[in-house]
Amino acid sequence: QSALTQPPSASGSPGQTVTISCTGSSGDIGIYNYVTWYQHHPGKAPKVMIFEVSERPSGVPDRFSGSKSGNTASLTVSGLRAEDEAQYHCSSYAGNGKVIFGGGTRLTVL
Amino acid sequence: QVQLQESGPGLVKPSQTLSLTCTVSGDSVIPGLYYWSWVRQPAGKGLEWIGHIYTGGYSKYNPSLEGRVTMSVGTSKRQFSLDLNSVTAADTAVYYCARMYCKNYYPLYYFDYWGPGILVTVSS
Asked: Nearest-5° angle of CA B46, CA A45, CA B32?
């Protein structure tokens, strides 16, 4: 299974809304609802922001939302804040016990 | 509160075996209750799932690493380990141990707890 495809970078000004895409295939995102988004600050452990496509763990602001259409999943961050600046990784179950990740998107808050 | 901590050498010579241990506190490494996993990130690249160990001590590995990787659970049930043999410079990365969340023993394929990561460099 190939890695998922994410744009290398995204940006927005404080208060704006940014959407990051994650494109897979009919063998992963297209067929399974196990899409996860992680926020990753340098030198820290990744943190789950969205799991099972659109579910938010407790403690994650509702400014973060997830969705999926066909083979592409999306993470939307609304009301952008300075602390949202980080790398965001998507992942998906790819069948037969395998997990695949995207290449990561660096979100910059201008 | 569950905490994970990776340990092991930060420098490994090419063709040798990279061996890392993950020590878990606040939980027990009982395969089946959760899946215990390794993930790595080469500099400037995305995350890569290495594999996990689960029910009955069975393990599942990334096909791209199959044949070079072995995972095991320690006898204390507070540790699990990763061995990656025949390493090359391409295996240089930050290595993370992580817990894959399970609900009613069924994996949901996301990692809810992670260690801080350990940089392993492959170089002579």
From this structure: 95
